[in-house]
Known about the structure:
globular
Amino acid sequence: MMGNVLLLFAWFVVAVVASLSIGWEFIRQIFGMLAPMVVSPFILLTIFRKRELWNRLVQRYAIFVAWFAVFMIAFQIPAFPDGWTYFECFGLPILIFFLLYVWDRFFGGRFQMRWIVSGSVLVIVGFIFGSLVLNATAMQANGHEESLDWGGGKITNVKELVDVTALTGPDAAVVTKRFQFTAAKKRMEIPDGSKKELWLFNGELTGPVIRVTQGDVVEVTLTNKNIADGVTIHWHGYDVPIAEDGVPDISQKAVAIGESYTYRFKADTAGTFWYHSHNQSSEQVGHGLFGSLIVEPKKQSKEELEIVGFVAPKYIDASGALLSGDGTVPKKIKPGTNVRIRLGNAHNKPQKLILNGTAFQVAAIDGNAIHKPTNLKETYLQIPAGGRMDVTFTMPNHAVRLFDAKDERGGWVFQSTTTTTKASMEVPDEVFKPEEYGEQQASQLDVSADFDREFEMVFDSKLAFFDGMVHHLWTINGELYPNTPMLMVSEGDIVKTTFVNRSYSHHPMHLHGHKMLVLTRNGVATTGSPWWTDTLNVKPGETYEVAFKADNPGIWMDHCHNLDHATNGMMMHLQYDNVYTPFSGHTHE
């Protein structure tokens, strides 16, 4: 009995520790849903501890519950449990206990134990295999396109529909900056010194910097030389018209080998952005099809030395090596120089970046300026997959080092022109908290009134066969793409979205065509500068509320920018009620 009590106590300790480290939403699902199954054997043992038959049944039932709980966590528990799921969690264990009683009462001793064990193992294996196949089948479904989520708002009946191909950028006659990009394969040396076949724009790693001035009209002509699956260019974080967004089968067809496609948009927002192929993104970005888009303000507030950097994708350098975005990283900087480092993360996971040797400021997040940023020191930055941060500092008279925590080569070292010193590799404990950083001010989005639409997106995972292997498939509201519901809005709506992460992994959620204002994190309102983002990292157990204005008509992707997660089901669309696409099929990462 004492051993059972200790096991029960250990379970509660694990629950408390997990809730502190990975969040309440995770605990509410995993431990809350499974608590009756975990606790019931101990309750039964307490009640029937003096009865030999029941004690034997309870012990067998406890073994069953242990296996069943693992199975439910891995395969079955969705974000929004239905009646069948509740039966599985609560009713099925009761049924099993009854069947165990019937077996022991009427058939006990009539069959050899090895046949019972062998049969049980076969049933369990078959059940698991069947679940893997069932989940994989859900991934291959055609999609129930009639599943529309109106967010509690009015379901409109629009007569005049608009084709996405009509929602284009400016005319060619007003273009002020033109660029020619060719996507092609190239074998070259990567940061670790080995050689690999990369897929690059204009043969450059990273792709050419598009550097323009606010107000320029930009034209980029993309030609595909030899990328078999076709390529596109998505302007990540830049709110271009939908026809210029670069998503295959929604805004255009992928550019096949030997073909070209021209994008045009007005660069009316200053900041740090990036571009990348959006066709089979997990593979194509990982092989190098990405680069930086820098839009400089018409008037600079002060003269700065600019450095553009990317954390490399996992295929190029899994340890998080820093790549120069424009081919130049100065080794020496004159003390007193104002420095701005524009950092982007092309990796699939959030990256821990450290700047040692000087106080610094985070001047912008995802291209959005921070209002009155303050000095930071002994603080590391966690940049989401797909996210960007502008870091500024004044060069001191000693060395400064910028590096990724996983990069053993030590990143970049900037030495003073007056003296040479050793740069620190110390990793601080404090993390940068954007929800508290900077000074509050009125935002451009009035969220004091009621929202026109409110959506909830809950993130889970399930195991399935995919591409010949067992993978985690990542769900939104219990569904895999293309069965995830379409979020419907009308132009002018003020929209609130709640992200709830009940899975075991980070999910950097990226909404195309719009900027999101972060309202709360884990139920606590933001207190710093208005936190605008296009790629919000939601950690396991976290809940965020964000808002945006539906002011850019189209059919927009909303997906996890861990591109492997998007490939494995975690994507959906935001559709304006009067917009349609003439392209067939479904877009895939």
